[in-house]
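Hello forum,

I keep getting stuck at the same step: I have a sequence, I want structure tokens, and every attempt I make locally crashes halfway through. Rather than fight my setup again tonight, could one of you with a working pipeline run this one for me? It's a single chain of 185 residues.
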Amino acid sequence: MKKVLVVDDDEDIVNIVSALLQSEGYHTITAQNGKDALAKAITDKPDLIIADIMMPEMDGWEFCWRVREDKSLGETPFIFLTARADVMDQIRGSEIGADDYIIKPFRKQELLKRVQNTFDVIELLRKVKTQGVQPEGTPQKKGAAGKKPAKGAKKPVKKAAKKSSAPAKKKPVAKAKAKKPAAKK
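Reply #2:
Ran it on my machine without issues. Output:
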């Protein structure tokens, strides 16, 4: 069962998001500020963090930054769930390491789908890392016979076609034959 840490200073939001996630089979851990959330994240090692930005004691920006700086939490998926709808806030969230940014008020289906998409991406990345599985639609960067080029191997150089100084010969064009009029009877 996947563990999701839900962080918001609004207790109603925490309860709504937790109940929604639990109805889909997720286990939830909750906190009402970034400081408490960081302590719980270090202790409980959630599989995903969903956090507000505007919170007391430690806001969501600093909380996300600290999660990314912590060696044991650094790769934990992080979604902001916030009323801050400005594009610059969304960019800032991405720059400090958030994987997604959902604006309040949110739709239940949207939240659930984005949580599921986040887990799907993590699973795909895990497969790529551990099994060397190539994601569908991604061009393979392997050499002949599916093997990676040897370390230090030089990239093959294509030789340029020799150019002749003689002008290119034109192919003769077949002339159309004139049709003879049909014979009259």
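The longest helix spans residues 108-131. If your local run keeps crashing, start a new thread with the error log.
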